[in-house]
Amino acid sequence: MAFRYTAKIYIDKDEITHESGDDADELYNWMLVKAQGKFENFSGEVIDNKTGKVVKCFRKSPPD
């Protein structure tokens, strides 16, 4: 059985990791934890696998 959502994390435009599951909020939290304490240009998105639409996203930039 396929999962409902896929979360992907990027540094700049390169995908560095992904995770799948049925709970969008849980995947969103997973992305934030992975990016915590890092100083790169992180972004991430949770995609609904049925529709292909982004349901949650974030962007984090290093301090200047």
Protein model, in words:
It is a single chain. With 64 residues, the chain is an alpha+beta fold. The chain has one helix at 24-35; strands at residues 5-11, 14-21, 42-48, 54-60. The protein has one helix and four strands. The chain has a four-stranded antiparallel β-sheet, covered by helices on one side.
Essential attributes:
64 residues, 4 strands, 4-stranded antiparallel beta sheet
Fraction of helical residues: 10-25%
* Helix/strand class: alpha+beta
Low-confidence stretches: none
Q: Span between N and C termini?
A: 45 Å
How large is the share of residues in beta strands? over 45%
SS summary, helix count? 1
What's the mean pLDDT score? 92
Could you state the order of secondary-structure elements as H and E? EEHEE
Please identify the oligomeric state.
single chain
Give, in spatial order, the strands making up the sheet with the most strands. 2-1-3-4
Largest sheet: 4 strands, antiparallel
**Number of DSSP-assigned strands:** 4
Shape type: elongated
